[in-house]
């Protein structure tokens, strides 16, 4: 088409604009046609041989990405595209360019992610799995008059948690921090059967906050014969004040402890993640009072709509502000 356009008298620039390609593409096509005729216009990519990136290449790349560079003998903790090219070549694969490696990673759905720091459970794997299995069986088989709730506490900071947000090219979201950080603490209990959330607010994460939650749970589940709480091994859950409060409640509330450092076994952790995503991340509240109003509004709306991201009406948001 480029050669035909130039043959009709169009300039190379005009032909390139009409075809939506670079002017150099039209110039090269015309030059090849003048030098060797029609045969020079044939697609010559058929002589390139087999593609370097095939199914086997992708499988080995997935196997490499399952570990860290240190697992494969490199003195570096994170992968780069250049290092992946070298590692695949060391494994007998053809050497590819950095751009080709980037396209291959995109085709696999691989992307740069922040690492998740965790503390490993000190229990043996079999003991940890058995404990989690016992707790799941309790949740599944307890009668309705003995509700099972997952309990945990969350920190609310006046300095906002900074997170990603959609922005136009050349723009970046700006979040003004108040400077002097303030904290509030929310203790909550999630009913695993109904999804209902019970929570209290406090100025410190002490036994008093947890005891306040115990009395709130006891008042909301008055008809319950026994209330089972699944929670972690924090000191406030086993303090002397807490044991005295449990005794005052007449043994109606029974504590079941998770294995150490096992947040994935507590369902309420998902609620706190949603709370940060919907309220505290990149927030613009200048006072802790305004922020806590929004926190309570979100938790109340979540209870009402049973949704991780309840849509609050504008009028509600104005009241929260």
Automatic annotation (TrEMBL):
Matches recorded under SUPFAM superfamilies: Homeodomain-like, Ribonuclease H-like
InterPro entries given in the database record: Homeodomain-like_sf, RNaseH-like_sf, RNaseH_sf, Tc1-like_DDE_dom, Transpos_IS630-like
Single GO term (MF): nucleic acid binding
Gene3D superfamilies found in the cross-reference section: Ribonuclease H-like superfamily/Ribonuclease H (3.30.420.10)
Residues annotated as domain Tc1-like transposase DDE: 148-290
Superkingdom to which the source organism belongs: Bacteria
Record-linked Pfam families: DDE_3, HTH_32
NCBIfam families, A to Z: transpos_IS630
Identification of the protein by name: IS630 family transposase
Species of provenance: Myxococcus llanfairpwllgwyngyllgogerychwyrndrobwllllantysiliogogogochensis
């Amino acid at each position: 088409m480029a050669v035909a356009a130039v043959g009709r008298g169009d300039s190379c620039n005009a032909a390139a604009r009409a075809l939506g390609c670079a002017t150099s593409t039209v110039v090269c096509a015309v030059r090849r046609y003048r030098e060797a005729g029609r045969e020079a216009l044939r697609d010559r990519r058929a002589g390139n041989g087999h593609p370097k990136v095939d199914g086997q290449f992708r499988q080995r790349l997935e196997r490499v990405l399952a570990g860290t560079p240190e697992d494969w003998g490199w003195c570096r903790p994170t992968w780069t595209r250049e290092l992946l090219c070298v590692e695949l070549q060391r494994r007998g694969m053809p050497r590819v360019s950095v751009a080709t490696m980037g396209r291959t990673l995109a085709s696999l759905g691989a992307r740069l992610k922040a690492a998740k720091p965790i503390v490993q459970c000190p229990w043996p794997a079999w003991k940890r799995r058995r404990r989690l299995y016992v707790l799941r069986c309790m949740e599944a088989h307890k009668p309705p008059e003995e509700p099972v709730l997952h309990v945990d506490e969350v920190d609310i900071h006046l300095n906002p948690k900074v997170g990603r947000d959609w922005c136009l090219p050349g723009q970046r979201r700006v979040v003004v921090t108040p400077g002097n950080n303030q904290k509030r603490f929310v203790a909550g209990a999630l009913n695993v059967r109904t999804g209902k959330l019970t929570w209290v607010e406090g100025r410190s994460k002490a036994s008093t906050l947890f005891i306040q939650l115990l009395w709130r749970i006891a008042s909301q589940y008055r008809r319950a014969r026994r209330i089972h709480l699944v929670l972690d091994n924090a000191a406030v859950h086993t303090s002397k004040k807490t044991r005295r409060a449990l005794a005052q409640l007449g043994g109606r509330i029974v504590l079941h402890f998770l294995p150490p450092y096992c947040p994935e076994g507590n369902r309420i952790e998902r609620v706190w993640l949603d709370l940060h995503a919907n309220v505290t991340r990149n927030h613009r509240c200048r006072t802790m009072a305004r922020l806590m109003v929004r926190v309570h509004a979100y938790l109340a709306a979540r209870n009402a709509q049973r949704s991780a991201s309840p849509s609050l009406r504008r009028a509600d948001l104005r009241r929260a502000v």
